[in-house]
Amino acid sequence: SRLLDFYFLSRVSSRTGDKTQFSYSAHTFSEPRFLKFLTAYHQVYPLSQIEIEFLPFAYRFFLLNYVIREGARFFRPDLCAQFRRDTAREHLGSSSRLDLTELLKIVS
Predict the structure, then answer these.
(1) Exposed, middle or buried by CB within 10 Å (0-12, 13-18, 19+), for 71?
(2) pLDDT for 41-75, tens place per residue?
(3) Are 91 and 71 contacting, i.e. CB atoms less than 8 angstroms apart?
């Protein structure tokens, strides 16, 4: 699904960036820059409500695959351990509580 890349795109468009604190938080889905990107994307490649509702699952897949499963390939051991811990303790649980209200407004 094309939505598998949307979390990465939300991170790229994030004002926060990864300059001082590196996190895999889902807050980037609700940042103004990502909402602006999604609005422009939707005008060219229309998205459905079902696709937006799938985003928490795509985010969870990203966390499980990229951070948990493959993290050791991308990060130093100390960072990998920290990111895996943060993912297990915080981010996976928060994926089921994502507020999609603003994203759904874009496609309605």
Answers:
(1) buried
(2) 999 999 999 999 999 999 999 999 999 999 999 99
(3) no
